[in-house]
Each structure stands twice: as C-alpha cells, then as structure tokens.
Amino acid sequence: MAKKNNSSVKDIAYYQKKFWKVFFIGLAGIFLFFVFANFGLFGSMPSFDELENPDSNLATEIISSDGVVLGKFYRENRSPVTFDELPKHLVDALIATEDERFYEHSGIDGRRLFGAAVKLGADGGASTISQQLAKLLFHGEGSKFILFRLVQKVKEWIIATKLERQYTKNEIIALYLNRADFVNTAVGIKSAAKVYFGREPKDLSIEESALLVGMLKNPSLYNPTREKRKELVFNRRNTVLAQMVRNNFLEPEAKAQLEKKPIVLDFSPEGHLEGIATYFREYLRDYMKKWVKENKKPDGSEYNIYNDGLKIYTTIDSRMQKHAEDAVHEHLKNLQVEFFKAQKKNKNAPFYKINDDETEKLLKRAMKTSERWRLMKAQDKSEEDIIKSFDIKTDMRVFTWKGERDTIMTPMDSIRYYKHFLRSGMISMEPQTGHVKAWVGGINYKHFQYDHAGQGARQVGSTFKPFVYATAIEQLNMSPCDSIIDSPFTIPRGRHNVSADWTPRNSDGKYRGMINLKKALANSINTISAKLIDRTGPKAVIDLTHKLGVSAEIPEQVSICLGAVEITVQDMVAAFSTFANKGIYIKPQMITRIEDKNGNIIYENIPESHDVLSQDIAYAVVKLMEGVTEDGTGTRLRAGRAGFRTYDYKLDNPIAGKTGTTQNNSDGWFMGFVPNLCTGVWVGCEDRSARFNTTAMGQGATMALPIWGIYMDKCYKDKKLNVSKDPFERPENITVKVDCWKTVKDTLDFDQDLDEFNF
C-alpha cells in the first residue's frame, strides 16, 4: 500500500514537473515570439520615426478665395482633422461602440481579449482602437491564413502598445478617424462628413455621427447610399445609439427620439468628375504637375500632389464660380432646344455646308480620337474589329440637359449625338489684381472634357475690333468722336501684302455715310474697321494685341480686323481687362499661395504686369465699348433679351462690351466689363461646321451675351461680392475727346462680322 502511495506521489510530482516545464517553455516561447516579432524577424516593424510620422496619403486641397474647398487631388481622399475639431458625441459614439475601456487600457484590453478567447470570437473581435489604428497604419487587411494572421495579430499588439506610448489617447482617436475608410471616395472623418452630409465634422448631429461610426465595422456592408441596405444601415445606426446609452453617453429619452429619425443624406462624392469648378481643377492639375518639377522640397525631392497634403489657395470665388456655372447651364439648356429644332430637316445634322464625304471623314476622325478606340487599341484589337464595334448597338449612359439617360445606340451614333451639343467657355477676372474669380471650361466635365476657357482657341469675330480701334486712337491720335465715311472700300492687291483686291462688306449691304467711331463700333461696321487697319497697318494692331496679353500667333493680314484670329477666352479676358485697368496689363492669376501639410508657405504668387496704353487712351476705348451696350449690338443686356426668349436681367449700370460672331455663325462671343470685373463668354459647337444656320440664332448677342447677363445679374444680387455698378473712373485732364453727341439708336441688332468677304 505504501509502495502504491509512493508511486502515486512520484507520478504527481512527475506530471507537475512536466506541466511547469511545458508552461515555462511555452511562456518563454511566447516571450521569444513577441521579442522576435518586435525585432522584425517575422516581417518589418515600424521604426520610431515611422511611428512618429506614419505614412499617410493626404489629399491636396484646392481652396477658394472665400475659404471653400473646391476639390482635391488624391489617391485617397483624406484631409486630416485634430481632436479639437471632433464633436464630443462623435468621440463618445466611437468609444461606446469600438472600445468601451479605451481610456483604461494601454493598447490591449485584457478583459476583452480573454472574453473573446473564451467565446472563440462569437461576440466579435477584441481589437482596441489602438490595435485597429496599428492595422490601418502598417499592414492593412488581415491574412486568411491562421499562422500569418496570428503573426499579424501579435505585431498589432506590439504596435498598439508603442502607439500608446507615442501618442495621447485623444491623438490616437484623431489618427484613427483620419485613417478610416468610409467608401464612396471618403477616407477619414472629414471627407466622410463632407461626402455624406455636406458639412464639417464639428457640425455633425448625433444621429449622423452614429451612422458614420456604425460604418466602421464594415463600410461596404453599411454603405448608406445603397438603397437595398437602408434598413441594415438604419438598424446599425440605432445599435450605436444603444451603445451610447449603455455607456452613459446618451440619455434613453434622447435615444428614443433619435432612433426614430430617418436617414437623410446630402450625398456629394468628391470625385474628379463631380463638384464645382471641374475644368479649373483640371487646369490646376496640369499646372501643378509642371510646378512640382520646378519647385523642389528642401531635401531635393519632388512634391507629390496626390500624397503630400498640400493646400492650394486659389483666386476663384466659390460663389461667383457657382453663378457662372449656373448661368451657362440656364442659357445653354434653353438654347440647345432651339439648336435641336433647327437641325430637324438637316440630313447632315448637326453639320452645315459640308457634303456626305466630309461628314464621314469628320465622324471617323472623332472615332479615332475617342476613348473607346484608345482602349480597344490598347487591347491589341485590329482596326477592322474596332471599326465594326462602332456600328454595334450597346447600352450606354448619355448626357442630356435633364440629367444622364440610359439608352441603347451604336458608338458611332453617340459620336454624332454629342456633336450636336453647344459648348461654352467663360472666365471672369478682376482687372486690378488679375485674380480669376470664375472659370467654366464647358457644360459637363464628365462627358465633355475639352476646356474651352483656357485650352481651346476659337475665332473671335468682332470682339477683335476694339484692338483695331485702340491702335488707331494711339497711332493716329483719333478719338471716339472722330468720324469716318461708311462706304464701299477696297484695299488693292499689293498693299499690306494683300494677294488680291479685298473689299469687305457690311452684312446688311447698307452704308451709313459719315459715322463716328463710337457708333461704328457699337454696330460693328466692317468697312470702318477695314479703313482703320488700312491706316495703321496690320503689324501695329498685332503688336498692340500681343502687348495686351494675347499670346496667339496672329497673321499679318488686313482680314484680322474682322476677327479672323483664333484666341482663347483666357487671353481675351486678360486683354479686355487691360482697358478696364487704365491701360495696365496684369497676367491672369489663379493661385495666391501654396502651403505644405504643416502650413508652411512654399509658394507665393507675384503678379506680372506692364504698361500698355496711357490712361487717356484706355479710357477712350472704354467709352467706345460703352456705346455697344448703350446703342449697339449689346443693348439686349438692358432688357433681358436673348433673341428667342427673355431673361430676368435688366442691367442699367455702365457696361463696356463687345459682341462677336464668326463666319457662318460658328462662334458667338460676348466680352464685357464693369470697373472691377471683366468677363468673357464663348459659345459654339466642337466642330465649326456644326452650327445654327441663321445669324439671328448664331450671333454672339443670342448665344453668348445672355450668359454674361445672367451671371452679372446673379453677382449683383449677391451683395457680399461687391461687384461695381459705378461709372468708369475718368482720368483728370483727359486729352482725348470722349463726350460725343447723343447718337440715334440703329435698328440693326446683329454683328457685321465675317460675312461676304474673301480672305
């Protein structure tokens, strides 16, 4: 019996010894596992510097002059916020839902970890906010392989404890919310608040904060924009509210009220194709790509506009930008209806005066420059197969002025369909500063990506004539009140290098006899422009035009006096602004400064300017152009007329301007300014052969002027903008006669531009 007892005691001692041996070996193994993980034997671990400055792809923000974020350049749409910018109820919701003992642990919640282990994760994971941040910062999604996942988990624990030593609790919360992905282009709480609710995080309501916190568990599953998941998202939001009550962050009575509220979104994804000032933002992207090549970081490396969190402070005013975009949409939506009507009986619609072969060539050229062609070429498709694909009907979503529409058509038909649409380019600028306040490059950036404001040069028609008149006033000492005979006129072959006799005609075939320059410009009389350039010579006009800021090459031909010159809207606005700015040219400015992510100024703009004309001559040209809106082709501004309809604007203040219409009505222009704002508008189709067939509809006074009028009316109603209604400042002791006798209004209501003459 004693032997058996001794044997039992020995067995117990043996197993105890075994147990403790295994226990300590296991403990040592776990310890070594953590040590090895810490020193990177199972994959790299973040260094001290990386922990202090975690890699975060911060979006570059484009900021308007009135402090509104117009858009961003990003690979991840992330803009950071500090803890102080977060509302208390958002932080409460986060802690209540994701980490109840956040302020009690040091990165790992032992109680929660033990509970998860006992229940085998049935009630969810045991990750703390610090652990989730470690995952977001340094290794992303967990591996599906158990062994690898175990290694990742251990690394999370180690990094979490290091983060707790490196940052305060509040900083960890801010870091976490800045890194969280909320889908739909929203990374970080600031982007999420803007994308889903159109506001800053500090302005979120309790139920909105609860919804966003609820998304953290599974952003795709709890995506509030998905109609099929509305009930799921609703219940998840209310679960967060319940957690807030459970943790004493919210009163039960308040929860009872909040959980009844429906989910109301103000969804506005911050993609590159959506939002305000899309064409300007794309112009800025190209500008910044060049800028980073020429302006390096202190260490010699290049700035990255997608990752470095730059802040680009622009001259654009978000209110004026919206007014400009709304004006373009309001008028072109109406004008497009008339354009479609005009094309109904045109077998080559929307093209005029080209035959079937020319039409086919034009469409094929468009086909070969299309995105579809490019993509199929990249897939090594044969040209024959690609061409065939353009005649196969397919599902597509197309642009209409009533919104995008799903339809079925061939890609070739879609090319012709889009050729019908009138486009527009518009820029508005302060003459005294060169600050561009609004930039509209087209009607819809998603569907029409060519920028007609800064990229596309088009014939300017009679809007070129003020340059001819300004040259005459400067070179020939003329004044707006001087008279010239409006009569048939020919520049003979050989003079000014004319290859054949050139006889410009007024479009109505009428001649008015003696007429002063103010009246002649007001009614855009061709013969007077021709006589003036004959006296000055085309080179003098070209030289002045270039000094005014026009960069385009201009042929040394007399026909330029009627506008046979291609110039961008941007250059035209800069040139006309010189007249408004007392003869001083200021280069258009789009950026005031650029800051890095820490708020350090890394670029500050210095305006470029030079003198072009004396104050007296500049003022004389202004008085000339005032005649256009008083008695000429611009009088529609005074009555809200657009030819085919009326608008609400009735502008009665001094306005200097000029309409322009090119040959065959392909381009309509209006350039106009008041003392502190100059705005240029162009309207036309992508192809010059796509146009209205009548001058009544195709002239600048019908196509472009109404946009200018609608825009200015909106600006005047927006009192905070302080757009001037004052008269232009008259120079003291002016030497040029500008006070002419009152003219009698001519019944002519359209431009005499490029009709019936040979170049």
Automatic annotation (TrEMBL):
Protein's UniProt keywords contain Membrane: yes
Catalysed reaction, written as an equation: [GlcNAc-(1->4)-Mur2Ac(oyl-L-Ala-gamma-D-Glu-L-Lys-D-Ala-D-Ala)](n)-di-trans,octa-cis-undecaprenyl diphosphate + beta-D-GlcNAc-(1->4)-Mur2Ac(oyl-L-Ala-gamma-D-Glu-L-Lys-D-Ala-D-Ala)-di-trans,octa-cis-undecaprenyl diphosphate = [GlcNAc-(1->4)-Mur2Ac(oyl-L-Ala-gamma-D-Glu-L-Lys-D-Ala-D-Ala)](n+1)-di-trans,octa-cis-undecaprenyl diphosphate + di-trans,octa-cis-undecaprenyl diphosphate + H(+); Preferential cleavage: (Ac)2-L-Lys-D-Ala-|-D-Ala. Also transpeptidation of peptidyl-alanyl moieties that are N-acyl substituents of D-alanine
Pfam families recorded: Transgly, Transpeptidase
Swiss-Prot/TrEMBL keywords: Carboxypeptidase, Cell membrane, Cell shape, Cell wall biogenesis/degradation, Glycosyltransferase, Hydrolase, Membrane, Multifunctional enzyme, Peptidoglycan synthesis, Protease, Transferase, Transmembrane, Transmembrane helix
Entry annotated with the keyword Cell membrane: yes
Subcellular localization, as worded in the UniProt entry: Cell membrane
Residue intervals of the Glycosyl transferase family domain: 67-244
GO molecular function annotation: penicillin binding; peptidoglycan glycosyltransferase activity; serine-type D-Ala-D-Ala carboxypeptidase activity
BP GO annotations: cell wall organization; peptidoglycan biosynthetic process; proteolysis; regulation of cell shape
GO CC, alphabetical: outer membrane-bounded periplasmic space; plasma membrane
Record field: transmembrane: 20-42
Pathway in which the depicted protein is active: Cell wall biogenesis; peptidoglycan biosynthesis
Domain of life: Bacteria
Principal location: membrane
Span of domain Penicillin-binding protein transpeptidase: 429-676
Protein family: In the C-terminal section; belongs to the transpeptidase family. In the N-terminal section; belongs to the glycosyltransferase 51 family.
This protein's name: Penicillin-binding protein 1A
